[in-house]
Amino acid sequence: MPASTIQRTARPRRSRTRSRNINGRPALVISTLKPHQYDLRPACASLICPDCKTWVSITGIQAKKHKLVPHDTGRAGKDLAVRCQGSNRLVTVDVTFEKWQERLQDGGAETASRRPTTVLPKAFSHRTDQTLRARAERTPAGRVADWNAVLGRVGDVDAARKRMPAGDAPLDGPSVPMTTLHPQRPAC
């Protein structure tokens, strides 16, 4: 009889199983894992399987015996169906939900303190620092007085810009208009 050429793929994982099979390996103790490697919420109690490194549900979280759901090493429907050696392994839950949550929050705070979150400003030169400090100390009345002090010089610069340079006009080009042109549209 010829062998089947169809490759079996991993089955979707069931969250709850009624299998009485128990893995012969020693029970997995939750307190030996890091707090981010397991989840003790009653709705989705799960942990990272030490063998295949995937998240696996823990059955019977409210019962006396807890164990890992039978699972395959690959992704469901994509990879080959290879049963993980950690399937049906007993789990010893020796950490309370409150203690786990506290350890998880402490670890998050500790990790956040190691990450650089503040942006350090670029160092100023001595002159820039003096300018910024002087600008911060100025009042609105002081700013108006400063503007009035330079207003005469600003007017002189504007008048100099409006003057035409001395010299002959270009011979081969059109003359430059001295007034602003406002073209009119022809009446239709």
Structure description:
By secondary structure, this protein is α+β, with helices and mostly antiparallel strands. It has a domain at 8-134. Helix content is 28%, strand content 10%. It has three helices and six strands. It has a six-stranded mixed β-sheet, with no helix packed on it. Strand 4 and strand 5 (66-68) form a beta hairpin.
The N- and C-terminal alpha carbons lie at a distance of 95 Å
Shape assignment: elongated
Helix content: 25-40%
Main sheet: strands, sense, barrel = 6 strands, mixed
Query: From N to C, what is the helix and strand string?
Result: EEEEEEHHH
Sheet with the most strands: spatial strand order: 1-6-5-4-3-2
Helix/sheet category: alpha+beta
- List segments where confidence is low: pLDDT < 50 over at least 5 consecutive residues: none
Integer-rounded radius of gyration: 39 Å
Reconstruct the topology from this structure:
Blueprint: E1 28-29, E2 38-39, E3 46-48, E4 55-59, E5 66-68, E6 90-92, H1 97-114, H2 126-137, H3 140-162
Parallel strand pairs: 1-6
Antiparallel strand pairs: 2-3, 3-4, 4-5, 5-6
Summarize the structure.
The chain has a six-stranded mixed sheet with strand order 1-6-5-4-3-2, with no helix packed on it.
Describe the structure using short key phrases:
3 helices; single chain; six-stranded mixed β-sheet; 188 residues; 10% strand
